[in-house]
Design a protein that fits this description.
Radius of gyration: 17 Å
CATH class of one domain: Alpha Beta
Distance between the termini: 34 Å
Order of helices and strands: HHHEHEHEEHEHHHEE
Largest sheet: 7 strands, mixed
Number of helices: 9
CATH superfamily of one domain: Vaccinia Virus protein VP39
Bound molecules: S-adenosylmethionine
């Protein structure tokens, strides 16, 4: 269903259907690609995604949080990375896709971390946690997929304690010539081509490209965070701007 209040980036959806809203389409897409997600991440980013998450968590840990909420946890890689760098942390992972959570739970169990890391299915736009329940919230490659970005960010703000930190890791658009042009060619043409045959969802990696193009990055995303009530918003581009770590405090 199309919603007249949606911004342009919220109108970019995985499938060309007006029968389902963005949230339902995104959920269905991630349920579908879940079994291939980790493999494709590694292949398409040449393993660099692991370094991005590592760096993002390292940056956040400078503020010494102990209780974490990892939103859009997917298969749980951020939650596991938090544990690796901060073994005493308690971590709640949440994702709207039950198939992703199934895989995340398998990983957590395999690592013997079921006491430290809990996983559950849930929607970032209607969190079931109390106000100020967490020291830090992380969202890695998730905010771009929210059906209502501002609603999701407001919920994050609510569940963060005063002085708590939000870390967002998200794709951005490289600006430097000729890397910008080369990367764009790869991202627009090669990546969806490989994704089409390996993820069994022809649309998923086309949506990845289109959603990144439409999404506000750098100062534009910082403005939105400030509108929600976050302050001390900083951003650090990684790998010549392919993705960016945003850090904000409540
Ligand atoms: C690209 S994956 C990122 C997974 C993981 N954070 C990572 O770094 O690999 C995006 C995830 O966001 C989840 N997601 C999208 N919208 C959501 C929402 N409204 N609430 C919770 N999770 C959501 C999807 O189900 C998917 O697992």
């Amino acid at each position: 269903m199309s919603n007249p209040n949606q911004t342009n980036y919220e109108k970019v959806t995985p499938y060309d259907t007006s029968q389902m809203d963005k949230k339902s389409q995104v959920t269905s897409m991630f349920d579908k690609i879940a079994p291939y997600y980790d493999f494709l991440n590694g292949l398409l980013s040449l393993g660099i995604d692991t370094l991005w998450r590592r760096k993002a968590i390292k940056t956040l840990l400078e503020h010494q949080p102990k209780h974490f909420l990892d939103i859009a946890t997917g298969t749980g890689d951020v939650a596991l990375e938090i544990h690796k760098q901060s073994p005493e942390a308690t971590i709640q992972g949440l994702d709207i896709s039950s198939k992703m959570i199934e895989l995340a739970n398998k990983k957590v169990t395999k690592h013997g971390l079921s006491d430290q890391i809990k996983m559950e299915v849930g929607d970032s736009e209607a969190l079931r946690y109390e106000d100020m329940a967490f020291d830090a919230v992380t969202v890695s490659f998730g905010v771009r997929n929210f059906g209502n970005l501002k609603q999701g960010l407001s919920e994050i703000h609510r569940v963060l304690r005063s002085d708590g930190h939000l870390m967002v890791l998200e794709f951005s658009k490289p600006t430097i010539f000729p890397f910008k042009q080369l990367f764009n060619f790869y991202f627009k043409n090669i990546l969806p081509f490989i994704g089409k045959f390996t993820s069994k969802d022809p649309k998923a990696y086309k949506y990845l490209y289109e959603s990144v193009q439409a999404f506000p990055d750098y100062d534009q995303f910082a403005i939105i965070l400030k509108e929600i009530g976050f302050n001390k918003v900083t951003w650090t581009p990684l790998s010549l701007g392919i993705c960016t770590i945003y850090l904000a405090s409540k």
